[in-house]
Amino acid sequence: MLLRRIFYPALNLKQVGSIVNCRVAQGVTSRPLPTVCCYRPPGKVQYEECNGSLHFQPCRYYGKAVPKKPDVPSQLDGLTPTMLKQAFVPVKLAEQTDGVVKKLLTLELASRKEKLEVKREELIDKVRSSPYDRSSSEVQIAVLTVKIRNLQEHLHKYPKDKSNKRRMLMAVDRRKKMLKNLRLTSYETFENVCQQLGIVYTFPPEYYRRVTRRWAAKKALCIKVFNEVKQKRLAEKRKLLDESSPKETSVLKEGTPV
Questions:
Q1: In angstroms, rounded to a whole number, what is the distance separating the alpha carbons of residues 219 and 125?
Q2: CB neighbours (10 Å) of residue 95?
Q3: Which long-range contacts (CB under 8 A, 24 or more apart) does 223-229 make?
Q4: Separation of alpha carbons 19 and 175, rounded Å
């Protein structure tokens, strides 16, 4: 501990390497003597000479580089820093200012929350039918799209954030339901929303449960029984039609005038 307190402030372990224990090879003593005479860089030979004849113990590779994740394109990349914040858009004097005041009113010094507000309004303007539309399904889909993409960027950096992952999945399910209802009610509006927001709509799977052998055999048996019952009912209907058709023809023959 004493040597550690003495020599640690003098050496930077990240730059120099790792301090190892040296053992005197000849004559003086056989006890291990901790020294900081030299170090062994990773990947070098294990035995070198230092202050006579010393033995270097193997040390770990502490300077290993951490692989970086590829950058994901952000939805805020298209915003220019000269755009006004959403709170100052209706103010006419905001465009006439310059200098530090202009920077404070624009997105140059804005936070991420303020940039998301501007992006949200951009997507809403692409989709809404009237300037006063704030509650239609198209507007709600645009709002959910901004939220989902923001959470996706966050989870790419912090994949262990379970609470935000749950919020993202809930928002995805809600948007999927709204897109499904919009597709059934107004297909043209549905296509326009998907094109403007860049959403690829995929149909839900036919079965959500995991397919097992037992389930597949049971499903095949149910389909076979259904087809047999269907054929049996069709045969009964044809038999009834064949029995009723001669009576109708005989009645027609008796009623016809000679």
A1: 48
A2: 13
A3: none
A4: 57
- Residue 204 DSSP class: P
Global pTM reads: 0.56
Distance CA 106, CA 89 (A): 10
pLDDT digits (tens, 9 = 90+) for 21-76: 444 344 444 444 444 444 444 444 444 444 444 444 555 555 566 677 778 888 99
Question: Do 105 and 117 touch, CB atoms closer than 8 A?
Answer: no
CB 47 within 8 A of CB 55: yes
Q: Which residues, in sequence order, are CB contacts of 115 under 8 Å at separation 6+?
A: 76, 79, 107
Q: Would you state the structure tokens that stand for residue 92, as one six-digit string?
A: 């006419």
- The answer to whether residues 33 and 82 touch, using CB atoms and an 8 Å cutoff, is no
Question: Using CA atoms, how far apart are residues 254 and 75, in angstroms rounded to an integer?
Answer: 84
Query: What amino acid is encoded at 62 in this protein?
Result: Y
